[in-house]
Amino acid sequence: MKISLRNGFYDVYEFEASHNHILAPGTMSHFLRSQRKVTEAQMANAEVAKSVGISNKATIDMMAKQAGGIENLGCTREDIKNRLYSKRTIQAKEGDTGGVLEYMEKKVSEDVNFFYSIQVDEDDLITNIFWADSKMVSDYAMFGDVICFDTTYRKLNDGRPFGLIVGVNNHKKTVVFGAALLYDETAESFAWLFKTFLKVMSGKHPQTILTDEDAAMAKAIREVLLYTIHRLCVWHMNQNACKHLGGVVKDYKKFNIDFQHCIYDIEEEDEFLSAWNAMLEKYGLHENEWLQRWFEKREHWALVYGRNTFCAQMTTTQRSESMNNELKRYISVKYDMLTFFHHFERLVADKRLEEVRCDFKATQTSPKLKAEASYKHIYSSNIQVVSRASASDPEL
Predict the structure, then answer these.
(1) Consecutive sets of 10 residues in the chain, 396 residues long: mean pLDDT of each?
(2) What is the pTM of this model?
(3) Residue 210: which H helix or E strand, with range?
(4) CA distances (Å), 9 to each of 5, 12, 234, 292, in order?
(5) Is the Cβ–Cβ distance between 37 and 75 less than 8 Å?
(6) Which residues pair with 6 in a beta bridge?
(7) Using CB atoms within 10 A of its CB, is residue 158 exposed (0-12), middle (13-18) or buried (19+)?
(8) d(CA 213, CA 239)
(9) Torsion of CA 52, 56, 57, 63, to 10 degrees
(10) For residue range 241-280, what is the model confidence (pLDDT) as tens digits?
(11) Contact call for residues 110 and 133 (beta carbons, < 8 A)
């Protein structure tokens, strides 16, 4: 059929009544533009799946399975992906600053004690962000004697370091006290973060802070956290030792055993110095600059110098390693800032659900000794021995 517009009217000037092309069978109907449509229900399902970290491919596969096949979806994979991309592009046009402010104000409306602080530059672009909700503040009031701060977690696609301030609760589980997205890892950015953190936590200084080896961070801690003991995280130290010495020492496994002995097992300072020098001699590492630098900071990491410092066992429980592994399940470097915030909420919600589960177990169940069965066996065996002895000897 051919149509032309004449004098404001459409005029059909050629019409072919019979089909002049092969008809598409039902299995191909979802490729026809006239039959392709992404429904609002499909979009809603895709958005919910995306909010909990399910990939687009897995989401479409699930919807196809529910519909009895991809041909019954009523659209193609590309149609759904394009709709999702278009919707997120519109959201992104709001800009980082406007979008983040809107998100933070929404959180304030849901939690009146939600706190956030944003630094912007002269172009109104976000530099540093810190936020903490009311649960984080109350948790810090109870469990904030020791904190661990690390910026080596996953970063966003614009290279921003993401830092978590965490501790341990009464169940020895990780609890989040606050989070920050920083512009860079300079002393100025860290000082702003620590000052903001103290402000929201009513000026309470932690007794101990555990961090990675970072000169800028150490400087900020000395300037802001005046009443806090700074210890270096042993897990990060071991990770760096593997990077710097793995290709230098011939038998790194044996070296690591001696290295861990120096870190954990020594009680006296003189013994530590002797063991350290013996290790250097044994593996020919007297001239190694990395070990020399760490030896100069030995009072910040060797347990022989920190026996009287309360660390809530966070130096030996590899708290940072566990958080690193958990963050990989929730956060991707591909996320924009708003998407990052939503997925970070999932991480916090799961950590709090774990806390509720531990509370339930502590209040609704009775603890059992692991050796209870063996004690019963010993006790019953003694009774049998006494019974047999009394039967054979009337005086017993």
Answers:
(1) 82 77 67 72 78 74 80 75 58 57 90 90 79 95 92 64 89 91 88 95 94 90 94 84 87 91 89 93 91 91 86 64 73 76 88 92 82 55 52 54
(2) 0.69
(3) strand 208-211
(4) 6, 10, 82, 90
(5) yes
(6) 9
(7) exposed
(8) 11
(9) 80
(10) 888 888 888 888 999 999 999 988 888 999 999 999 999 9
(11) no
CA-to-CA dists, residue 299 to 222, 290, 304, 323, angstroms: 15, 16, 8, 25
- Phi, psi (rounded to 5 degrees) for 287: -100, 5
The DSSP letter of residue 227 is T
Structure tokens at 189: 């950015």
Cβ-contact 210, 148 below 8 angstroms: yes
User: What pLDDT sits at residue 157?
Assistant: 58
How far is 42 from 75, CA to CA, in rounded Å?
10
Residues in the chain: 396
Q: What is the token pair recorded at 165?
A: 């301030």
Answer for the pair 227, 205: CB distance below 8 angstroms, yes or no: yes
Can you tell me which residue has the tokens 């540093």? Answer: 128
